[in-house]
Amino acid sequence: MLSDLFDHNARWAAAMRSSDPDFFERLATLQRPEYLWIGCSDSRVPANVITGLQPGEVFVHRNIANLVHRSDLNLLSVLEFAVETLGVRHIIVCGHYGCGGVRAAMEEQRHGVVDHWLQPIRDLAETSLGTAGRRDDPDMLDRLCELSVRAQVDNLCRTPILRAAWARGHDVAVHGWIYGLADGLLRDLHCDRRQASDSEGHPAAGPGHG
Ligand code: CO
After folding, report:
1. Are 190 and 146 in contact (CB under 8 A)?
2. Is 99 labeled as catalytic in the residue annotation?
3. Which residue segments constitute the domains of the chain, with CATH numbers given?
4. What is the spatial distance between Cα 27 and Cα 55, in angstroms, rounded to a whole number?
């Protein structure tokens, strides 16, 4: 029921006000998030909920399979605003195991426009994994979820927005994480970048999938 959402909202706002009377007043005048989250649209991976961050603490961009297309005006606008105006200190690209977008990219059948969106994942699978006969292997799909996060971190670091930010000494780091739907846990893929010259595409050092 949609009315349940309004009821829940009213109770939530009242609870927030009772624990912190100035909470909304403060947020209404200013947001100063330290984090930009680039994640999958999947309803099971809500940035604020799984990280325990409150309203005002994380700027969020989500799309199918958490991709960084270099001509995506939506993502680039979010990135520019987050880095240049909000001054975020950490950018987190977060993928998740069992991503339907990654799986769809590996399927033979046509899905529609989303096939164009997912093309970079197909390209990545062909160049990095070799995919013949392994399209329905869950371990291969999870590995591809991890590889894709690393590739998106690379893409992000190559944007003129981040290169310019680092060139002027802006302290902003990019991180690659992955979330397990089956256990609710985040894993660090250990592919952090803090400047343009940080190594790109170095081998996986993170834990296996869950
Ligand atoms: Co997904």
Report:
1. no
2. yes
3. 1-30 (no CATH), 34-188 (3.40.1050.10)
4. 8
- Whether the full predicted model's pTM is greater than 0.70, yes or no, is yes
How many Å lie between the centroid of ligand 1 and the Cα of residue 64?
A: 6
CA of 99 to the centre of ligand 1 (A): 4
Q: How far is the CA of 206 from the centre of ligand 1 (A)?
A: 19
Report how far residue 68's alpha carbon sits from residue 84's, in angstroms, rounded to the nearest whole number.
18
Q: Are 66 and 38 in contact (CB under 8 A)?
A: yes
170, 193 Cβ separation under 8 angstroms: no
Q: Report pLDDT digits (tens) over 90-108.
A: 999 999 999 999 999 999 8
Q: Is the pLDDT of residue 45 over 60?
A: yes
Write out the two tokens for 88.
Answer: 């975020």
44 is catalytic: yes
